[in-house]
Amino acid sequence: MPPLVPDMSDDESTGESIPYDDALEAKRGSATKDEDEDEEAEEDVYTVEKIVSHEWAKNGDLLFQVKWHGYDDPADMTLEPEGNLLEGAKEVVEEYFRRLGGRPEKPQAQPKKRKSMGRPPKSTPEKMPEPKKRRKSRAETATETPDEEQVDDNDGNASDGTSTWMPKSRNWEGEVDSVETIIREPGTSNLLAFLNWKNGKKSKVSIELCYDKCPKKMLAFYESHLVFKDG
């Protein structure tokens, strides 16, 4: 007779047993994970609501300004190449072309103008500013004479024996022979100089004008009247 086979429990025949509850929870966790991944995948899908405008990239690609569904902030709009929209938003692209009356054409590059090698343009000569007129002093204005010689009477002499003649030149050093004397005009504080001219005439002129026209003659007059005391 063959030997008897001893009875074996379920644990001994199948090895370590897996609790039923643990296996069920593991299965549920795996299903929940798959659902979360599906939801995340759905959230990553953006829907084109409309195309607002377009522009051309430097490489010649057509770019669309896209407004996405559910995003109303203009800052959320993006520039997308045409190839990115043909797969999932081809109808939106075609609708945009219909609004424009057809597919937009790429603008032609403007040829650069060649610089002319001709003569440079003539420059307009600048106008030189007119010289400013020198402002006359009070002494010159007071004793200014006309172009013709002035006389106080028919003889050309004033009542005190002096003439009103004065040369037209600006510098009198070569015209004055000497300064005869200096007096104070009666009733005023003005000083008048009696000048002897080399042409034989004598004139009475304001001291300020003499300082301007013949300063060396005035200095010679003062030096000739200096009085030195013995030390």
TrEMBL record:
Compartment annotation: Nucleus
GO biological process entries: chromatin remodeling
Protein name, UniProt field: Putative heterochromatin protein
SUPFAM superfamilies reported in the protein's UniProt record: Chromo domain-like
Alphabetically ordered keywords of this record: Nucleus
Top-level taxonomy: Eukaryota, Fungi, Dikarya, Ascomycota, Pezizomycotina
GO cellular component, one term: nucleus
Recorded superkingdom: Eukaryota
Compositionally biased intervals (Acidic residues): 34-45, 145-155
Pfam families: Chromo, Chromo_shadow
Presence of the UniProt keyword ATP-binding in the record: no
Domain Chromo: 46-108
Gene3D superfamilies: 2.40.50.40
Primary location recorded for the protein, binned into one broad class: nucleus
Region feature (Disordered): 1-45, 97-172
Regions of compositional bias (Basic and acidic residues) in chain numbering: 24-33, 97-106
SMART domains assigned to the protein according to its UniProt record, in alphabetical order: CHROMO, ChSh
